Amino acid sequence: MAMLTCKFRSDAMVSVSEVKIFLPTDQTANTTREVAGVVTLLHGYGNNCDCWLENTAAVRYAKDNNLALVMPEAANSFYQDMAAGPAWQTWLTQELPEHLARNFRLPTEREKNFVFGLSMGGYGALLLALRHPDRYAAAASFSGCVDIGMMLEARTVNPMVQQVFGPVFGTVSELPRQADLFALAREVSRLPAGQQPRLFCTVGRQDFAPYYIYNQNVNLREEWEKLPLDFGWMEWDGGHEWDVWDRSLVYAIDRFIAPGYAGQVHAAWSAPVTRGEGNRHG
Length: 282
Known about the structure:
CATH class: Alpha Beta
CATH superfamily: Alpha/Beta hydrolase fold, catalytic domain
Number of helices: 10
Helix content: 25-40%
Mean pLDDT: 93
Oligomer: single chain
Low-confidence stretches: none
């Protein structure tokens, strides 16, 4: 395999940004053909582009399915062109794909590009796909901060909210339309089905304080299920944690890229175990 740490120049951000890239190049079956797809994995608030590699089996899942992984750095941007910060969204959706195609010949076709993310990155994955439906075939949010309007309403009682969102949106009194997943989904739902990205959300049932992620996701589900969208939902017991997100990644690959893959992974873990007595001394 090839695990690369790349630093690319961004004109939009007037800076250099780091990206981790996994290429499944060491498998004999993969050396003469293009990767099956490119999965961009977005990190959460307070994390960085290493987190998927450090906390999940993302590389193993990618190798199993001949997938390239792209894990960009995005700071605490909520994947926006920030009011008081860099233009992260422009970098991720315009400049970075050009670098990847030019330097690694990764496929640029919509049907081979997917974007998944956790927490802040879950919101980011849905945002990028809804803002750019011509670029991504599908998007998945794992425990995503999907109802930003609900979070902004808490600014008067939770000063941390203003600290988080002030640099992103500035002093706006309400969430801008171009950052509102509810408004964007209504717009995208008017497109022909073949031009819409497929969408998927997972969340742990115990994911509450301090930002009520479960409640946010239920709000989104109730609204999106009214729209003509290809939208999937899964929930199970769990909090805001890597066990939920690793499992979610398998389900997203299964749903969008390799049907049946989740069953294979589950079967491997649920196979009966025979325990021997081992050697005893003394």
